[in-house]
Write a structure and sequence with these properties.
The structure holds two protein chains of two kinds. By secondary structure, chain A is α/β, with parallel strands linked by helices. Chain A is built from 14 helices and twelve strands. The radius of gyration of chain B is 25 Å and the shape is globular. The chains are: A alpha/beta, B alpha/beta.
């Protein structure tokens, strides 16, 4: 018998001949499994619905009407699709997305790790998913129990005495922390005006401080990518309300002087906010509470792997020091002596939480994320969480050392990195940029790394592999990035037009911003559908 | 550990490549005194999937699920039937485990969905442009207040007394730290909203008037009158909607003259989830205000081959570009909940949404009629959509607790929402949706009859 695969080809073998452009054009514009999909406004209509009701529609005269004369008279113009059409529409769209389920997703600082499916399952238990936020307390003891149990673990993992669970995402948590700091300062009659943020900070830090009414000043970085302690200390004084420092920082480095910084800030009467976006690098090994932190948010969607969902939802609980605990927002859960749970909200706060700064959101925060994060913490346990940090750091260093000969690694000389490896664009030829390299990486089947952030490195590329990548996956990524980096240094023109194999070529972002089209406008009713768009009746093949 | 692919052999091979003796060496930058010398106190070792599921199931069983009771809670979170398709789509890994679509060439699925979502929301609200979502209705409400201050360069906010008290509290909390001053009032406990009282509080310093529609007591304010009064003083009208299903039956806020329309989108596709994650909706009627909007916006463009495609745009408003000068600090939003909303709305379509709204209103009218016959119960509202207020002649908090003991989740007591306002203590908010049966309504009436007797 002949061998069925005489060439010995297998996945991972480099493609040396470009077949992508071979073959005839297609009538549909599709290319086999690469299927184009119109907008719902082009395929749906206002007569179709994919939902049946148990009773016939209550139309007609004589129906009770208590709408007070505000009935809608104009159509909304919402297209409907039947269930099969709906499933197909979104399934086709889904296939135009990259996702962690498809491959390594090395966005630095964003922490794209595997999302355990057990967590999806438990979040959907009716006792959690089908519970109203204002249900009588005696009927939601399990939900309050989840919030309480997760709070306890977050406090234990951070070494902090209090936590506010309600912030909806990282930036919302930052706001919560800064508001608590401001409330604490004002409570002692100490109005301070300035918040210091390192140059390498996430954009949310200065935006948050400004949103809370503070002026923002930059703290410079030193040559090895960390906060310049001397410069910071020199700036401290009676006008400094707080510093906001990310640790490990956005260059992927641990701030060695963090405790010294915190002590200096406290000595000057200020407070210390730690951006906990990178807590995943140290979870189980380092407790921020031991470093002098007053407030830190924890991105449950990063460290504790609740899914990013194409941009959210997240969840950003904030741990507090003793100094800030009394100012924490409402509502929160307390465990009573009899083992039951009690909700401290406006009704009960006057008695023993009178100095709260207020409320961040309508209800209790992201319950659906709490159940997932709790399942994640219990699944990993103390040993597993420590291993999470260690493998995340190991993987990042493996990438750093495997590529530092081909990509500039501005801080690699100063030691090991934490959970992310930072590279710059030094030495790229032919006018090629970090953007071109990133688009080339797309053709190799990877989502690019974080680009042009942090701002302290030219053409920054921040690579965070996370702990859920196998060595084989890392090796393939390293090979791909090495190859694209070599092409970038050689000035390979084809990178300018990358990606070549994605569902779309480079998109014109300038045009999108210059003439924003932010909602679909139906074509005029008199004309037929735009050329190339099949009408509903012609879409027999869909 | 099932989530960690590295083997011990991998780890030692990789350490050799790195040139480190041990994993501990990689943490050399962490000062020794900051390193834990043992495991996290009290946290057990890793657990099997089966064990964790069992633990979580036990906690879940300590809750009375809405589906297991006669259920009438609302006040900003409503129980609607979510078609099975919605949960299937949002669990597709390509949506669930994607990131914010910063690389548009490999994120057209999320981007096209967001463009469709923005259009659906804009049309529902009667607005020109909606953004790609906020955290929830309450935070969207604050963002609208902040935006109105930027647009009008004024700092005095007039809040309707019948704005959801938690939304008002979020606004008050933020305003404590900004220059905004709040003109506040307690809710008028009467059959009609106090539109005249609200209008009387608008002046030349007012940046915006914030009105909920339907309001916290379920009543319908006259938005057109309020819009006219606000505009006459150069103020913006911010309309808050916590029940999007209502807009299947009611005039859209944009049509009535609202300048910024915000709300909670949870009713469509998202589910109750004990309060989160929810879906903040944010839209503006006049496209000239787009550049002052918070949050992400998805726009249409084309690629290098001339094919239609979508990108995040106008990002010079946002924190990752503008830092302390951004229109908001929001980064992560509610993308997956926006998908759930959009899928559910696509399934409904115009026809389904209208039918859903009428069914909600029909059942609510039926419930109001039957409750009014219970001795001691009076319906407060003249107008409502699917939620109304009844008075019980005694503290409603206690009644709610006693009904809960009988497995009836009767509604939200005003005493819980307004603990300081004794005038409201006898009020109970009752919400009725398509998930409510006539039998549920009869169960509530019978239990109330007994308790109030």
């Amino acid at each position: 018998m002949n061998a069925p695969n005489a060439s010995g080809w297998k996945p991972g073998t480099p493609v040396t001949v470009d077949h992508a452009m071979d073959g005839p054009p297609t009538v549909t514009g599709n290319r086999a499994l690469m299927l184009e999909e119109p907008l719902i406004f082009e395929i749906g209509n206002s007569e179709t619905t994919g939902v049946d009701f148990s009773s016939p529609p209550p139309e007609g005269e004589g129906l009770p009407n208590r709408l007070g004369g505000f009935e809608r008279s104009e159509p909304i113009n919402l297209p409907g699709l039947s269930e099969p059409e709906t499933v197909r529409h979104y399934t086709r769209l889904s296939r135009q997305n990259y996702a962690i389920d498809l491959g390594l997703f090395p966005l630095g600082s964003c922490t794209m790790k595997h999302n355990p499916r057990l967590n999806e399952k438990v979040a959907r238990l009716p006792g959690f998913a089908d519970c109203h936020p204002l249900a009588p307390i005696q009927t939601v003891q399990g939900a309050l129990g989840v919030i309480h149990e997760l709070s306890e673990w977050l406090k234990a993992l951070t070494g902090m005495p209090a936590v506010a669970m309600s912030p909806k995402a990282g930036a919302h948590g930052e706001l919560c922390g800064i508001l608590a700091i401001r409330a604490a300062l004002e409570a002692r009659g100490d109005v301070r005006k300035v918040v210091l943020c390192p140059e390498s900070a996430h954009g949310t830090n200065p935006a948050t401080a400004a949103f809370a009414g503070y002026e923002v000043e930059d703290i410079p970085a030193n040559a090895d990518g960390r906060v310049d302690f001397e410069a910071l200390e020199a700036r401290l004084g009676p006008d400094i309300a707080a510093v906001m420092i990310t640790n490990p920082n956005t260059c992927g480095l641990f701030e060695r002087d963090f405790k010294r910084i915190a002590d200096a800030v406290h000595a000057a009467g200020g407070l210390v906010y730690c951006d906990g976006a990178n807590f995943n690098a140290i979870v189980g090994r380092v407790r921020p509470g031991d470093l002098g932190v007053d407030a830190m948010h924890i991105n449950l969607h990063k460290t504790f792997s609740t899914p990013h969902g194409g941009g959210g939802p997240g969840s950003g609980p904030v741990v507090f020091s003793e100094a800030l605990a009394p100012f924490a927002p409402l509502p929160f859960v307390e465990k009573l002596d009899d083992g039951s749970f009690h909700l401290v909200e406006e009704e009960t706060a006057q008695e023993h939480h009178a100095s709260t700064f207020g409320r961040m959101t309508a209800f209790h925060g992201q319950m659906g994320m709490f159940t997932r994060a709790l399942a994640y913490i219990l699944s990993h346990g103390a040993d597993g969480l420590k291993q999470v940090a260690e493998d995340a750091v190991l993987n990042a260093n493996y990438i750093l050392r495997s590529l530092e000969d081909v990509l500039a690694a501005p801080f690699a000389h100063s030691g090991h990195c934490m959970h992310e490896a930072l590279f710059g664009d030094e030495g790229f030829g032919g006018g090629l940029s970090t953007l071109d390299l990133a688009k080339g990486l797309i053709d190799e089947g990877f989502h690019p790394m974080t680009m042009y952030f942090p701002l302290v490195v030219h053409g920054a590329m921040l690579v965070e592999p996370t702990e859920t990548e196998s060595k084989a996956s890392l090796d393939q990524f390293i090979a791909a990035l090495r190859s694209v980096a070599e092409r970038a240094k050689a000035g390979d023109e084809t990178l300018k037009s990358a990606p070549h194999y994605a569902p779309r070529r480079r998109l014109d972002e300038t045009q999108a911003a210059r003439k924003p089209v932010l909602a679909w406008q139906d074509p005029p009713a008199t004309s037929s559908a735009p050329a190339g768009t099949p009408s509903r009746s012609e879409r027999g093949g869909r | 550990m099932r989530y960690l692919p590295l083997t011990p052999t991998d780890r030692s091979t990789m350490l050799a490549t790195i040139g480190a003796d041990s994993v501990d060496a990689l943490f050399a930058d962490v000062p020794a005194e900051a390193q834990l010398d043992g495991p996290i106190h009290g946290l057990p070792h890793h657990a099997s999937e089966m064990a964790v599921e069992k633990h979580m199931r036990r906690l879940a069983q300590r809750n009375l699920a809405a589906g297991d009771a006669a259920f009438f809670l609302g006040a900003g979170a409503y129980r609607h039937h979510v078609p099975a398709t919605v949960d299937h789509i949002i669990q597709r890994g390509e949506f669930l485990t994607a990131y914010t679509p910063y690389q548009p060439e490999i994120a057209q699925g999320t981007l096209q969905m967001l463009f469709e979502f923005q259009t659906q929301v804009a049309r529902l609200y009667g607005c020109a442009v909606a953004n790609a979502s906020m955290y929830d209705g309450s935070t969207a409400c604050w963002e609208a207040v902040a935006m109105a201050a930027r647009v009008t360069r004024r700092n005095r906010v007039v809040l309707s007394g019948a704005l959801h008290p938690h939304y008002a509290e979020v606004v008050r909390t933020m305003a404590k730290f900004t220059a905004d001053t709040i003109a506040d009032a307690p809710p008028a406990f009467q059959a009609r909203p106090d539109d005249d009282g609200l209008i009387a509080r608008i002046d030349k310093e007012t940046s915006c008037v914030v009105v909920q529609y339907p309001d916290i007591l379920g009543r319908l304010p006259d938005l057109e009158r309020i819009a006219e009064a606000a505009h006459a003083e150069g103020a913006l009208l911010v309309v808050v909607n916590t029940e999007p299903v209502a807009l299947g039956a009611l005039k859209s806020p944009g049509e009535c003259g609202a300048d910024i329309v915000v709300g909670e989108g949870q009713s469509i596709g998202v589910g109750l989830q004990f309060g989160g994650p929810y879906l903040g909706l944010f839209a503006v009627r006049d496209p000239k205000h787009v550049r002052q909007m918070p949050g992400r916006l998805c726009g249409e463009t084309q690629d290098a081959e001339g094919k239609r495609g979508f990108v995040l745009t106008l990002s010079t408003r946002e924190q990752h570009i503008r830092r302390e000068k951004a229109t908001s600090n929001i980064c992560t939003n509610s993308g997956l909940c926006a998908l759930a909303f959009s899928v559910h709305m696509t399934l409904l379509g115009e026809k389904g949404l209208r039918q859903l709204a009428l069914e909600n209103h029909r059942l609510a009218c039926l419930a109001a009629e039957r409750l009014a016959k219970v001795p001691g119960v009076a319906v407060l509202n003249e107008s409502f959509f699917n939620e109304f207020t009844v008075t019980l002649g005694r503290d409603a908090r206690d009644v709610v607790r006693r009904l809960a003991d009988r497995g009836v989740l009767a509604g939200v007591s005003l005493g819980r929402l307004y603990p300081q306002a004794s005038a409201l203590a006898e009020g109970l908010l009752v919400a009725v949706t398509e998930t409510t049966t006539e039998e549920d309504i009869d169960t509530l009436c019978a239990a109330l009859t007994e308790i109030l007797a």
